[in-house]
Amino acid sequence: MEQQSRSDDARVAAPPSSSPSSSQFTSQFTYLVSVFEAALDAHQAGRLDDAEPLYREALALDPRHVGALHYYGVLHHQRGNHSAAAQWMSEALELDRTDAACWSNCGLVAAALGHHDEALICYHQALQLQPDFADARNNLGVALQAQGAFDAAIEQYRLALSANPAFGDAQLNLGSALARLGRHDEALTCYRIALSLDPRSAEAHFNAGNAYTARGEHAEAIASFEQALALRPQYAQAHINLGSLIGKLGDYAGAEANYRRAVALQPNPTNLVCLGGSLGAQGRLDEEEGYYRRALALDPSYADAHQNLAWSLLKRGDYAQGWGEFAKRWRKRDYEAIAVPGVAEWHGEPLGGRRLLLVGEQGFGDHFQFLRYVRVLEQLGATVDVRVREPLLPLVERMAGVHRAFSGEPQHDYDFWVPMMSVPACVGTDLSTIPADLPYLFADPAKIGAWRKRVNAGSRKTARKVGLVWAGSPTFGNDRYRSIALTELNTLAAWDDIAWYALQKGAAYDQLADAPQVFRANDFTADLQTFDDTAALIMNLDLVIAVDTGVAHLAAALGKRVWVLLPANSDWRWLENRSDSPWYPSIKLFRQAMLGEWASVVQRVAGELRSNGL
Which one in 78, 355, 389, 551 has a CA-CA gap of 20 to 30 Å to 200? Predict the structure, then answer.
């Protein structure tokens, strides 16, 4: 959290030292000094309502009193009246241009008004007058950090700390800049130093929580956020970050409670979307939608609200509204990362005789699901090139309708480009018009043949051959509930007429070491180096049983039978309360009745294996 330190409680202009010539003037001068000092005392104590009339009285006695002009301006700044603050401070500087504190505070006001170049000038002027002015160094660092100049900001924070090693705000800001550069260990050191200076700093505890979160030290992060909230119960951002962390750890009810407190304190679009998301994760779709619409009422262009609202609508099968909202999902940086400069984005214009670039986005599963639209675009008359991540190229190059597939930057001219997941909105896809002709992905015939020999050598001819995937990427937000421990599938090992083939990659693969022998008997995962390898092995299987991962989409797009095990808060693409999928006729869905409870799901799968000859 960035903080701007003010010097109004430490850089007080000294009263004039010249002696007045008459006793009456001496009395008036003495009274002026006492009024100004009383104003400063009240101001420094945070009693702005008491300080204001005293500053006004001082200025009535002497309209050219530099200190009163300066700090009356500071008072207006603290109340949010930055234009008035700038006027009062400008008058002070017209009378005394050597006041470094006033220059620094003028910089704060300029920054608050959005005049960032002017703020930099003010800070530099303050530092020319007083090079060891720690407040001005810190404020200059904040201004540079706001412009993305993190290395330059870090240098200024370190100079501020050289001048004042006990400057807690500079420690916090240094930590913030280091964190923005991904240097979380160094950032945490800064926050610990700040806490040694002020153990009751809610900001330092909050920032330490962020650093611990980035380091994956969840218990320490939770403790830090909770300490920040113990010190400042109204700390909305700490409620949000605590809620986000425990939500990622699977405690959606706890996340909801924290988000509700944040919304009560600050009902801004971000907090409203967080609350809606926690409700959606608990399957409370009717409740979540209202929070996204409230967020959009406050900020109609808020991308996260559009995206979450789209997911909610699509999950309920409302494709007419859902795709429209999904088309507005883009954060600026995400859009720019895939956009094709100089080429118009396609929004449904006629494609006869046009060259169109279809651009992949999001995860591998999303690619596998939406590559089906290549055929649709070709049927509309386009020559379709496809840009995807390199691991997908062999599969995409074999697709019907693909003129050219590549990764990297486009080297050809196009009439249009379109994000892959925007095509349904452009062509008006609804539940009855999903292009679901399978297969539309094809494995390498030579690799299929090579795998056939290995598969047949490793199992009886009469055995049913079933692939198994029990976990997805642990970085996925809902992975705690999407993935299943392999031990929970042990009851499926009871059938001696099934040959199991592990298709699991990633950290969860290690669970195979302690699994029943039948799960380990045909373990070829070390040889599954690419999706092309996995596709070829899948083509030699009778069935794939998987949680909601890219492999499930790949197998279904290949036309293979797939049974997908879904959590109660399943993804939007599987709709609600269905055991089938309009996206993949070969898929059967096994849904949880209660979040986190897999036993009944596995029991139903076992029953299907018992009765299904495949």
Answer: 78
Q: What is the CATH number of the domain that holds 412?
A: 3.40.50
Domain annotation covers residue 179: no
Phi, psi of 492 (to 5 degrees): -75, -10
**Domain check: are 395 and 479 in the same one?**
no
Q: Who's near 326: CB < 8 A, 6+ residues apart?
A: 306, 307, 310, 311, 314, 421, 422, 424, 425
Dist CA 566 CA 595 (whole Å): 10
d(CA 392, CA 338): 17
C-alpha to C-alpha distance for 608 and 232, rounded to whole angstroms: 55
Domain count, the chain: 2
- As a whole number of angstroms, the distance between CA 295 and CA 302 comes to 8
Residue 567, domain member (yes or no):
yes
- For the beta carbon of residue 539, count every other beta carbon within 10 angstroms: 22
Two tokens, residue 390: 């390199």
Measured CA to CA, the distance from residue 343 to residue 362 in angstroms comes to 21
Q: In this structure, what token pair is assigned to residue 437? A: 């002709």
pLDDT of residue 614: 58
Task: Kindly provide the b/e burial profile for residues 494-514, where b requires at least 16 CB atoms within 10 angstroms of the residue's own CB.
Answer: ebeebbbbbbbbeebbebbee
Mean pLDDT, range 584-599, rounded to an integer: 94
Closest by Cα among 139, 97, 175 to 8: 139
Kindly report the pTM of this predicted structure: 0.85
H-run or E-run covering 87: helix 82-95
Distance CA 188, CA 207 (A): 8
Q: Is residue 392 domain-shared with residue 354, that is, in the same domain?
A: yes
Angle subtended at Cα 531 by Cα 568 and Cα 602, rounded to the nearest 5 degrees: 30
Beta bridge partners of 465: 499
Domain-ending residue, one of 394, 427, 460? 427
Residues 463 and 587 in one domain: yes
Q: How far apart are CA 218 and CA 522, in angstroms?
A: 37
> Residues 351, 493: one domain?
no
We report the CATH number of the domain holding residue 473 as 3.40.50.2000
Residue 377 belongs to domain spanning: 342-427
**Predicted confidence (pLDDT) per residue in 465-523, tens digit:** 999 999 998 888 788 889 999 999 999 998 888 999 999 998 889 999 989 999 998 89
Supply 290's token pair. 């209202």
Domain co-membership, 387 together with 473: no
Residues 522 and 581 in one domain: yes
Of 370, 394, 427, the residue at which a domain comes to its end is 427
Answer yes or no: are the C-beta atoms of 467 and 541 closer than 8 Å: yes
* Interval 211-266: pLDDT, tens: 999 999 999 999 999 999 999 999 999 999 999 999 988 899 999 999 999 999 99
